[in-house]
Design goal:
- The structure holds 2 protein chains of 2 kinds.
- By secondary structure, chain A is mostly helical.
- Chain A has 9 helices and no strands.
- By secondary structure, chain B is mainly α.
- Chain B has one domain: RNA polymerase sigma factor, region 2, helix turn helix motif (Rna Polymerase Sigma Factor, Chain: A, Orthogonal Bundle), CATH 1.10.1740.10.
- The chains are: A mainly alpha, B mainly alpha.
- Chains A and B meet through helix 3, helix 4 and helix 5 of A and helix 1, helix 3, helix 4, helix 8 and helix 9 of B.
């Protein structure tokens, strides 16, 4: 009985889908088992009869009208364009044997570089302080160098001293003259 | 539209399937699609006239109604035109068209079920079909047609794609957007249900 169950499952598969060994086992079983042979005959009849069921065969005029109707409807539809991903996929598939791997590798590397660049610039933009903060930081920096400011007078005096030195030298040279 | 005259002319039983060969990748289809995408929208006519019969028959086998089948087939072509840019060319164009048409058929069946439960409860396709076509069938064919119409939509879809369009289980799974195992299970259930019907008919004879 177990064999009959297996055979009936095989009967539902198409002949070209069965392995040669299964085909031989099936034929041997059907020759010996009238019940399964009847089942096989019925299943064959189901498929043959279903395939032969009539369908309408419209005349040429029907198809003329059909085509015109489709054309009218298509006239109102924007023309189709290849989608970007579909074109890219076709391009990849269309690449010849030796070039496929290097081209795909180059495309992947380029993609990664672009992605890295985008991420970095995004991060840099996100981390960039606003203009107010920059001004404040500048002020703070100056504030931290208050000692320079404190000695600013002295620096001015240094300038004076330099000028005095120059004046002295000029004075000296005039006196000598 | 009066379909009575030509409904009598019934397609001869196909030797194998409607379009098993056509379901494979056709380089000619790909060339036409390329032309359409490059701006020659009129080239789409070639695809319509090439596949209109297959799509109409598929829709008819699902709906059992000529007007519905015609409308669904036209909708399928319009939808295919709109989405042509996303068509991936490693698949067959016809299989892709089947997917669009089958989705429309399943939506139509769902809507019909929702709108008119009484009609679905009856599940007698001959009620909606031209009576002349019904006359051409013998009792077994009529019983078989009724049994097919009574199948759950996904089983009917699987049976149609397998028996009439000659698609493999893998292709059926692609069309219906399900696992290959599910497609197989649907086919097995459908064939078993029809076999039971046919066996019951044989026993009463």
């Amino acid at each position: 009985m177990r064999e009959c169950e297996t055979i009936r499952e095989w009967l539902l598969a198409e002949e070209d889908e069965r392995a040669p060994e299964a085909q031989r086992r099936l034929a041997a079983h059907l020759a010996a088992c009238p019940e399964c042979a009847r089942e096989a005959r019925l299943l064959r009849e189901v498929v043959t009869r279903t395939r032969a069921l009539p369908v309408p065969e419209p005349p040429a005029a029907f198809w003329v009208e059909f085509g015109e109707s489709v054309r009218r409807r298509l006239a109102a539809v924007p023309p189709p364009h290849p989608r970007l991903w579909a074109s890219a996929w076709r391009w990849c598939r269309g690449l010849g044997g030796p070039w496929r791997v290097p081209a795909l590798a180059a495309a992947t590397a380029l993609g990664l570089l672009l992605a890295f660049g985008v991420v970095r610039s995004h991060r840099a933009l996100r981390e960039a302080p606003p203009a107010d903060a920059l001004a404040l930081a500048e002020d703070l920096g100056i504030g931290q160098n208050l000692d320079v400011l404190e000695n600013f007078d002295l620096l001015e005096n240094f300038d004076l001293l330099e000028r005095l030195d120059l004046l002295r030298r000029l004075d000296g040279s005039a006196a000598a003259g | 539209m009066s379909t009575g005259d030509w409904m009598r002319r019934v397609a001869p039983p196909p030797s194998s399937t409607d379009c098993a060969a056509a379901s494979r990748v056709s380089p000619a289809d790909v060339e036409v699609i390329q032309r359409v995408l490059e701006g020659e929208a009129g080239a789409f006519d070639v695809l319509v006239s090439r596949h209109q019969q297959a799509i109409f028959r598929l829709s008819y086998r699902m709906t059992r109604n000529v007007e519905d089948a015609r409308d669904i087939a036209q909708d399928a072509f319009v939808q295919a035109f709109r989405s042509l840019g996303s068509f991936r060319r490693q698949a067959s164009f016809l299989t892709w068209l089947y997917r669009i048409a089958m989705n429309l058929c399943l939506n139509h069946l769902q809507a019909t079920t929702h709108e008119d439960p009484a009609e679905v409860d009856a599940r007698v396709p001959d009620d909606r079909e031209d009576s002349l076509t019904a006359l051409l069938m013998d009792e077994r064919d009529r019983a078989l047609t009724a049994a097919i119409a009574a199948l759950p939509p996904h089983q009917r879809a699987t049976l149609t794609l397998r028996v009439h369009q000659g698609l493999s289980h893998r292709e059926i799974a692609e069309v219906l957007g399900c696992a290959e195992g599910t497609a197989k299970a649907n086919y097995f259930h459908a064939v078993r249900a029809l076999r039971r019907k046919l066996a019951a008919l044989t026993e009463t004879e």
